[in-house]
Every structure is written in structure tokens, then in C-alpha cells.
Specification:
With about 190 residues, this protein is of the alpha+beta class. The chain has 6 helices and 5 strands. It has one domain. The longest helix has 19 residues.
Length: about 190
């Protein structure tokens, strides 16, 4: 099976990790129609179980950080899948390839066109492991790209519903990013 989210070298690793087993946690809230559509398309783009993970978006003055964490601490299978996926996304995004988010959220997703068309070198993206997941840190000195990142983060918060939350340390919290009720930073990894 060829996964569009990952380079060919990662597909074998994803298959090996997938054979170890899976774990899922059901969400309790009823998703909107849009959120249900995004969740249904999720497996086409993300190799991990969306219900077993949580996306955390934290805006900063120069961009922001996107974390994907397992809900059940110690879930090695989902953690490995998250790390493979985000490492591959970093490479794709640096090459201007945002086809995964476009496939999942639609080609008119807020901020996406600006990110896709950013001149090489204007958007920096770093990858790092975090406990129970991985993170991509985005930064730019271009205010228009920072704004595009913040709009992109807000759209993902809306589209992922209970599978996403806003980080609490972000500068952009005061500029329109919102917190989903019932979620806190402490339960991000649960």
C-alpha cells in the first residue's frame, strides 16, 4: 500500500509499526458534518488513528507549533506512526507540497495557498520528538506567512473538533485563535 503522506522509505516502516497493533479512544462529543467529513478522510492522509491522538496548535509571534500526541500515554504504535508522518510532512512542506492538508481539509483551506506559494526559505519548519508524539515548529519573519500559519491553525482546530486543541502558550491566542470548551493542555496527551 502506497501512502501519499510519506516518502517510499517510510511506507515500509509504517507497515511494520501497523502490524504491532492499534489502539483507539472514542470521542464523546457529536462532531459537526464538516468535522465528520474530515475524520472520514483522515486515514487517506494520516497513518495514525485520529481517535487515538490529539492535535495541539500553539500560535507564536513568529508562527507556531503543531503537536500530535497520543491520548493514551505509552501507546508505542501510534507514537511511531505520528513521528514517521510528521517527519515526512516536514520534508513535503519545505518543498511546497501541502497536498495532504488540501486533500484532508480542501484546497480552499484558510492560509494554505499562502503557505504553498511561499518562496523557498521564507518558511522554516523544524521537527522534534515530544513525549508521546512529535511536533513541527513553523517560523517566518514574513508577517503575511505568520498570518497564514495562524489562519491555517484556526482552520485545523475547527475541522478536527475534539481531536484538536489550542495550546495555551501561544501569542496568537490573543489574535483570534480560540479554545475548544472542555479541553485543557493537561489532557492533551490523554
Amino acid at each position: 500500500m502506497r501512502m501519499s503522506c510519506c516518502p517510499r522509505w517510510a511506507a515500509g516502516g509504517l507497515l511494520a509499526v501497523a502490524l504491532l497493533g492499534t489502539s483507539g479512544v472514542a470521542t464523546s462529543a457529536t462532531p459537526s458534518r464538516r468535522q465528520a467529513e474530515v475524520a472520514q478522510r483522515g486515514p487517506q492522509v494520516m497513518p495514525f488513528d485520529l481517535a487515538a491522538t490529539r492535535h495541539v496548535f500553539t500560535g507564536t509571534p513568529s508562527g507556531g507549533e503543531q503537536q500530535v500526541l497520543v491520548r493514551q500515554s505509552g501507546d508505542r504504535v501510534q507514537t511511531a506512526l505520528i513521528r514517521l508522518h510528521l517527519a515526512a510532512l516536514r520534508e513535503q512542506f519545505l518543498a511546497g507540497d501541502f497536498s495532504g492538508p488540501a486533500q484532508l481539509h480542501g484546497p480552499d483551506m484558510p492560509g494554505l495557498a499562502s503557505l504553498r506559494n511561499a518562496p523557498r526559505g521564507r518558511l522554516q519548519i523544524t521537527y522534534h520528538d515530544v513525549p508521546d508524539g512529535a511536533a513541527l515548529r513553523y517560523s517566518s519573519h514574513d508577517p503575511a506567512l505568520v498570518d497564514a500559519l495562524h489562519r491555517w491553525f484556526r482552520a485545523q482546530l475547527d475541522d478536527h473538533g475534539d481531536d484538536a486543541m489550542e495550546g495555551m502558550d501561544g501569542h496568537a491566542l490573543h489574535h483570534g485563535m480560540h479554545h475548544h470548551p472542555g479541553r485543557s493542555t493537561q489532557d492533551a496527551g490523554k
